[in-house]
Amino acid sequence: MVTLIAALLSFAKFNHCRSTNWASPDVYIHMCYSDISALYGAREINTDRWPYQSADNSMEYPVLTGVITYLAGLLIDDPNGYRAYFDLNALLIVLLLFSSVFILWRLAPKYTPLFPIAPAVFGSLLINWDIWAVLFALIAIYFYESKPDLSSLFLGVAISTKFYPGIILFAIALLLWSQGKRLALLRYLAITFLAWLAINLPVALGSFTGWVRFFKFNLERDIDLGSIWYAVNLLGFHGGNINNLTTIVFLIVLGAIAIFFFATAPSRSDIANLSTVAFLTLAAFVTISKVYSPQYILWLTPLAVLALSRDSQRLAFWVWQGTEGIYHFAIWQYLASYNGAKFGLSEDLYALAILIRIAGLAYFAAALIRVALADRCPNLGNAQKNPLEFLPDSTYG
Q1: Which residues lie below 8 Å from residue 279, measured CB to CB, with a gap of 6+?
Q2: What per-residue confidence (pLDDT) applies to 385?
Q3: Band of the pLDDT at 297, cuts 50, 70, 90?
Q4: Which of 3, 90, 318, 397 has the fewest CB atoms inside 10 Å of its own CB, making it the most exposed?
């Protein structure tokens, strides 16, 4: 029921643009812009063109997402069928949302409703096709303990749909390494890579320049909307080589997360460790990255729900989601000011909204870290409470 309500709210939010044929600046004022309708014509999906055919106008998404957009386009005969194409994809996305919630419920039933009903989540649901990757990533986590080969296969599929699930590999690598399962780690990485390769290689061989555009676009792009670097630039601060800076900072953060993991892992379950480390790594990635798009909340929230272990963390969760809601409003009104709207958001206020969002994410991440450390401390205390425990059994008590 919660998921159904969230789906209806999401469709209602986007319906205004659907009714006005995505006119500008309406798409920004009413916060209902969608890549689904925008790229239908811009990437010539409406002409049934292969999405990776062009070197300079191919889909800026990984292969599986491009194939999904292409196949959906084949079902719409009208080159002007923007609404029909949007409706078809919206239906599929809602079904995928239900599937994602079901998998999440199997993993973390107590906190699952927090995912679909979070305002920024259903507000971003129909922006693009990211829910496909979310579902595949959740399936990979679901099968991790019982069927690791199937888990790695689905993770390879997820990475072929959107690159962010690759971050989950860092958490899995730490987990298997800490357990001394080196061969299992190599096997997991190999299957994930082979699954990714099986999906990508045919497209890369047949349309290399179009296929590689996604990677070049992300490596060469300048600082963009939503990032901390964009905010500080708006506030008048300018740095050096952002690519080098983001790489160095991210590697430092990865090292800190690894230290945190090895300090807390023995006191927690595999799924708790995996989801917490994956969330913290992804949170660091989207914070340090050169761009933050509204739909990134779809990546973060399922992992956040899986990482929750105490009712007391719900407040931190909603504080973070509240800051995401503020940012969701801010980015569209900021863009509206550049597209002929009578009212919009100033650069200073938009920069402030970015910093508020980052602060909210950091606040929730800190809440997860505090609980993980608290779980560890009692175990250490119990282990060292009685010095006689370190003596041979024959002399004890």
Answers
A1: 300, 303, 304, 306, 307, 365, 368
A2: 39
A3: very high
A4: 397
Q: What are the structure tokens assigned to 7, written together?
A: 């789906």
Contact 131, 298 (CB under 8 A): yes
Are 17 and 35 contacting, i.e. CB atoms less than 8 angstroms apart?
A: no
C-alpha to C-alpha distance for 143 and 42, rounded to whole angstroms: 38
Task: For residues 169-173, give the mean pLDDT.
Answer: 96
Where does the pLDDT of residue 227 fall: very low under 50, low under 70, confident under 90, or very high at 90 and above?
Answer: very high
- Which one, of 76, 78, 77, 90, lies nearest residue 36 by Cα? 90
Answer left, alpha or beta for residue 297, where phi above 0 means left and psi between -120 and 50 means alpha: alpha
Within 10 A of 326 (CB to CB), how many other CB atoms are there?
17
Identity (one letter) of the amino acid at 359?
A: A
DSSP structure string for 248-297: HHHHHHHHHHHHHHHHHGGGS-HHHHHHHHHHHHHHHHHHHSS---TTHH
Whether the Cβ atoms of residue 289 and residue 227 lie closer than 8 Å to each other? yes
Over residues 37-63, the mean pLDDT reads 92
- The pLDDT of residue 218 is 86
Tokens of 276: 């917490």
DSSP assignment string, 160-217: HH-SGGGGHHHHHHHHHHHTT-HHHHHHHHHHHHHHHHHHHHHHHHHSHHHHHHHHHH
How does DSSP classify residue 395?
G
Q: How far is CA 303 from CA 264, 272, 370, 393, in A?
A: 18, 10, 17, 44
Report how far residue 131's alpha carbon sits from residue 96's, in angstroms, rounded to the nearest whole number. Answer: 7
Count of CB atoms situated within 10 Å of the CB of 134:
27
How much is the pTM? Answer: 0.91
What is the number of alpha carbons within 13 Å of residue 156 lying toward its C-beta?
21
Cis peptide before 392 (omega within 30 of 0): no
pLDDT over threshold 50, residue 332: yes
Contact (Cβ atoms closer than 8 angstroms) between residue 223 and residue 233: yes
Residues 6+ apart with CB under 8 A from 392: none
Average pLDDT, the chain: 91
Per-residue b or e along 212-222, where b marks 16 or more CB atoms closer than 10 Å to that residue's CB: ebbeeeeeeee
Cα atoms in the Cβ-side hemisphere of radius 13 Å centred on 41:
12
Nearest-angstrom CA–CA distance, 89 and 30: 20
